[in-house]
Write a structure and sequence with these properties.
This protein is an alpha+beta fold and 168 residues long. Strands 1-2-3-4 form a four-stranded antiparallel beta sheet, covered by helices on one side. Strands 5-6-7 form a three-stranded antiparallel beta sheet. The protein is built from three helices and seven strands, in the order E-E-E-E-E-H-H-E-E-H. Helix 1 (51-80) packs antiparallel against helix 2. The chain crosses the membrane at residues 55-79, 91-111. Keywords: Membrane, Transmembrane, Transmembrane helix.
Amino acid sequence: MPVWFSLGSGEMTTFYRDNAVYVGSDGLQVEDQAYRLSDLELVWHRRGPRGAPGVALIAGRFLLIFAVLGGIAAAGAAMRGIDFESYDSGTILAGAVAGVVLAGTIGLFLVEGVITLIERSYEKGGVEHQIWARHSNTDILLFATRDKLRFGKIYRALQRAIEHSEAA
């Protein structure tokens, strides 16, 4: 765990802190790299490369959709091959009810699984989110993560810290 620092004198306000990132009124520390806010000329964010995890998430979504549609098509094809005329109406009705319940249960679990995967992909997406800054006339990457929620918290904290330091 890094040791948080004080870059200036006076009281320091903490805008964000976790096990690897600290954003305070005087500076930013990511892992073992520390920067004074006054030394950062310009700060911006951008999306990095999608990478293999992002491509896998997209491909996985399409594969699950095709699997569900393929299951429905296979069930329909299997139903066409059954000779219903040799069964009485009670047996057909019981079979239809059992088939609908079974298909609905399996479909519900598949849909729930797909929804869970989609929710997780939005939380820990496949796109890398980056915070960049111009420091001593050089563009440097300050922080990068695939966690959208964490990225948003850190970027907003950095914006507030910069506004705070400019107002002081």
